[in-house]
Amino acid sequence: MKNRSLTPKRLKKGIYILPSLFTTGNVFCGFYAFIAVMNGDYTVAAWAIVFGMIFDMLDGRVARLTNTTSAFGEQYDSLADVVTFGMAPAFLMYSWVLKPFGRVGWMAAFLFLLCSALRLARFNSTKLETQGPDFIGLPTPASAAIISAIVIASGENLIGKATPGVIVIVIYTLAFLMVSNIKYPAFKQTLRKKRVTFPRFLFVILLCYSLATVPKIALFLLSLAYVFLGPVVLLWQDRSRKKAEAESQPVKADEVKQAKP
To answer: The domain spanning residue 74 has which CATH number?
Structure first.
């Protein structure tokens, strides 16, 4: 007789209404972003993508809290992410600032969409046991967040008028980060813990306060900080590793000298 406690937990088959409704809200936000872009309402389209992020965060939380995770919900969520965080931001960037570049512009937008799909496919094909506490590559919602933040901040004259050349560089950088092996914190353990330290609790409170008080500025700064967080941590870890190796080499040399007769 097999021990069920040792077998991996499988996703339940079927469709659950509550989490699927939140995922449908995510799809609607992505579709509405297309409508807003075609009407020339680029800031509205950016906000639609941001609201899609909220639905995307809630559907997984609701599914886990209500124990209604399913294979259908997992695939539906990935398809929704391709629409809202892949196609919608790419179309928004192309219509907003990349159109004058011609082939270079629409190829940059396509590259962003392609890397978003590849990022989600890699995430779905990775076993749950090997995913770990961090994301491998920049998550697609985070890449869509920085694009939306740029559009919103530029529309509100918070960062000035966007330069097309800079936007092309941003698109290519985000596409590279999504398919890279750079690790980004998922904050899953912090959210699931029943108890956290007071500094972490205070940080969450300040984060919510800034988003509620100055949402446009906070969205831009937070999304930008998260995008840079992965490379900065990687460089810091690489520097610490090289420093540790450099410090250990003289010790080994001294040990060899002492060992000689």
So the answer is: 1.20.120.1760
